[in-house]
Each structure stands twice: as structure tokens, then as C-alpha cells.
Design brief:
By secondary structure, the protein is of the alpha/beta class. It has two domains: 206 residues, FAD/NAD(P)-binding domain, CATH 3.50.50.60; 112 residues, 3-Layer(bba) Sandwich (FAD/NAD(P)-binding domain), CATH 3.50.50. It is built from seven helices and 17 strands. The strands form four sheets. A five-stranded mixed β-barrel has the order 2-3-4-5-6. A five-stranded parallel β-sheet has the order 8-15-9-10-11, with helices on one face. α1 runs parallel beside α2 and α1 packs parallel to α7. It is elongated and about 65 Å long. About 3% of the residues have low confidence. Bound molecules: flavin-adenine dinucleotide (FAD). The site of flavin-adenine dinucleotide has 40 residues, from α1, β3, β4 and α7.
């Protein structure tokens, strides 16, 4: 153990100077549906797995999540609890409550050797857990998104209950009400069109920032949707229910609920030293099997494009990445190139 209480190496136990511990087969960063689905698959494949989670899921703002088969309407924290219990029921599973601070490549790692440690992962332990530094043969990033809402003083208070970000997840519950769409991006018309399936009373609020072209506005108006381009002061409500939008200058526009379009980026600054390829929004690019541009580094779930950002989609991506991770850990065959999931020659 170091002077700051950090526990070194693979097993979580203190290491005497010079002791060499086996790396984890996989370190999974993030215990949302992507990480949990991957973890379950990997521990069932008897891969020695460490799952690390900072316990700050983006969807904790909401009380019910929808659209996950067999679990429609489940509280999202309940879904995570069940997922973690299932994962930890296997002997190969370890869980660490911590915030990953860095993931770095092991200096001089032999990339041709599938048994070698390729990565060092360091964490700040939370909820009484110690800081840790571990090594791993592969790493899966499943840390979801960091989101920024328009800077209105009370918007967070309504987020997840009256104001939602996922139209497919919460449109049904908001149907036939007077709704708002608040956003500062240039894709508001597309979102408004999707919301119009649920209500014929929708106002798009750009807060003086979001872009809606004149031709898109005309198309929205033809569907009965109004665009309000004025800056906003706040989202108001009383007794736990949103009542409307306060516009700069004082006008109050009654609205019973609606949607907000956050700005997103991948919650993965800890991997900056590895510089995996990203798209224009900073999401981590992966191939169809979850491989990033860095050998041995995988990513799944909301932190990768193209979405949609939903529980079931993230879980599926985690499960798919787990198959590829498990295959990579076996190393290449001597005489044949490794197969990809479609049974065709692929990347090892
Ligand atoms: C308000 C709201 C309501 C939603 N409702 C629905 C719904 O009804 N139905 C639906 O299908 N989808 C819904 N979603 C979307 C859904 O929650 C996401 O698509 C899904 O959770 C993404 O899964 P994930 O595993 O990729 O990431 P997440 O579930 O976001 O999990 C990421 C995990 O990584 C951890 N983490 C992040 N950084 C670090 C770090 N540095 N170190 C360690 N751990 C870290 C976080 O603590 C978190 O636990 C909703 C989202 C929101 C915000």
C-alpha cells in the first residue's frame, strides 16, 4: 500500500515490494446496463473481472424507466441493483466502488501476448473504499454520458419527472398534454417532430440559442407546433408539478411538462492518455464488436455512437462487446486469422 492508502495491483490485496500479481482479464468501468451486461457474460465465461463504478448514474433523476423487456416501469436504481447482484453471484466477479481517474497503457507491453497486462487503471475509492491501482489485459469503457442542460435555475428540479430527454422512453407518459421542448442545439426541429406524435400542443423554446431554420419552422407550424425564440428565465412549478416557462421580460407560458435537449459528451476523460478515436461530439468510436482504435480497449453503451441512448440498447452493446473481449483473451490461432462475430476473418 502507498502512503495515500492506495492499494496496488490486480487482486486488491497489498503487495509486498517486488510481488507480481496477475492482471485482471477485464476491468469494466461503469456499472450501468452496458457494464453490467458485459460483466455478467464475462464472469459466466470465468474471466477474472473487476467492475468499477462511481455510483453516479445519469438516469438517477428519474423514478421509472420504460421499454426494457420484462422490466417496463422499473425504478432505474432497482434495475442496477438486480444487475449487480446477478454479476456478483459468480466467483470471477469483483466490484469496486470508485471513480476511475486514469487508464494508461503499460509501458513496453507486448501487444502480441494476449496474457500480458496492457493497461493500468487507477481509482479514487468512494464510500469508504480505498484508492486502487490495478492492471488489466483488456478494459471496457461503459461510463455513459456527461450531460449539460440549458442554464435555467430550476431546470434540474423538473428533469426526469416533468422534463425528459428521451422521447421514446417518456413520450407515452406525457401524451396529450401542453408540452415544451427546450434546447440550445441545431436539431430541435427533428425532436419536435418526434414529440408531435404525442401531443398537438407543443412549443419549441430555443432560449435564444437553439437553431430552427425558417423552412423547418414553417413545416412545424404546419403541424401546429410553435417556435419561441426568446431567452428564458426559468422553468416554474408548484407542489411538485411543473406549471410553465418564464420568458425573459416576464411573460409566463403555461406548460405541463415536456422535453429538454441536453448537450452530451462521453464521460471518459480518464482515458485521455490513450486517445481513442472519437466522433465530432467526443463519443468513442467502436467497430461493430465494440473495439476502439486502441488495441485491447473496448467501449459500449451511451458513451459510443450512434445510440439511441436507451437501457436495452446499452445492455445489448455491452453483451456484444463481452463476446469480443472473451475472444480476444483467447489470443489468435497460429494458422488462421481470428474470426469476427459473423464468422468471417476479422481483427484480433
Ligand atoms: C432522466 C433519464 C431518464 C431515462 N429514462 C430511460 C427510460 O425510461 N428507458 C430507457 O431505455 N432509457 C432511459 N434513459 C437512458 C438510459 O438511462 C441510458 O441510455 C443508459 O443508462 C445508458 O447505459 P450505460 O451503461 O451506457 O451508462 P449509464 O447507465 O449512464 O452508466 C454509466 C455508469 O458509469 C459510472 N461512471 C461514470 N464515470 C465513471 C468513472 N470515471 N469511474 C467509475 N465509474 C464511472 C456512472 O456512475 C454510471 O453508474 C434515461 C436517461 C435519463 C438521463
Amino acid at each position: 500500500m502507498t502512503t495515500d492508502g492506495t492499494v496496488m495491483a490486480g487482486s486488491g490485496s497489498d503487495t509486498a515490494a517486488g510481488a507480481v500479481e496477475a492482471p485482471y482479464d477485464v476491468v469494466i468501468i461503469g456499472a450501468g446496463p452496458a457494464g453490467l451486461a458485459a460483466g455478467l457474460s464475462l464472469v459466466r465465461a470465468r474471466r477474472r473481472t473487476l467492475m468499477i463504478d462511481s455510483n453516479r448514474p445519469r438516469h438517477s433523476a428519474t423514478l421509472r424507466s420504460h421499454g426494457f423487456i420484462t422490466r417496463d416501469g422499473v425504478p432505474p436504481l432497482e434495475l442496477r441493483r438486480i444487475g449487480r447482484e446477478e454479476y456478483e453471484a459468480y466467483p470471477a466477479a469483483e466490484f469496486h466502488m470508485g471513480l476511475v481517474r486514469t487508464v494508461e497503457q503499460v509501458h513496453g507491453a507486448n501487444l502480441a501476448d494476449a496474457t500480458a497486462a496492457r493497461f493500468t487503471v487507477s481509482t479514487k475509492g468512494i464510500r469508504g473504499e480505498k484508492n486502487r491501482v490495478v492492471t488489466a489485459r483488456t478494459v471496457l469503457i461503459a461510463t455513459g454520458l456527461a450531460e449539460t442542460l440549458p442554464a435555467l435555475p430550476s431546470i434540474r428540479a423538473w428533469y426526469g419527472t416533468n422534463l425528459h430527454s428521451c422521447i421514446a422512453c417518456d413520450g407515452y407518459e406525457e401524451a396529450d398534454r401542453a408540452l415544451a421542448l427546450i434546447g440550445e442545439t441545431d436539431d430541435l426541429a427533428e425532436h419536435a417532430l418526434l414529440i408531435s406524435q404525442w401531443t398537438d400542443d407543443l412549443i419549441v423554446f430555443t432560449n435564444g440559442v437553439g437553431q430552427v431554420s425558417e423552412s423547418d419552422e414553417a413545416a412545424l407550424v404546419a403541424r401546429g407546433i410553435r417556435v419561441d425564440r426568446r431567452p428564458l428565465t426559468d422553468v416554474l412549478g408548484e407542489q411538485g408539478a411543473m406549471t410553465g416557462i418564464q420568458v425573459a421580460g416576464g411573460e409566463f407560458v403555461p406548460r405541463a411538462g415536456g422535453f429538454v435537449r441536453p448537450r452530451y459528451e462521453a464521460a471518459a476523460t480518464f482515458a485521455s492518455a490513450l486517445s481513442p478515436a472519437t466522433d465530432a461530439f467526443g463519443l468513442i468510436l467502436v467497430d461493430p464488436q465494440g473495439r476502439t482504435s486502441v488495441p485491447g480497449l473496448f467501449a459500449a453503451g451511451d458513451t459510443t455512437p450512434p445510440g439511441p441512448e436507451q437501457l436495452l440498447v446499452s445492455a445489448g452493446e455491452g453483451a456484444r462487446a463481452a463476446v469480443a473481449i472473451n475472444r480476444q483473451l483467447l489470443g489468435p490461432l497460429a494458422t488462421h486469422p481470428p474470426l469476427n462475430l459473423a464468422g468471417r476473418p476479422g481483427v484480433g
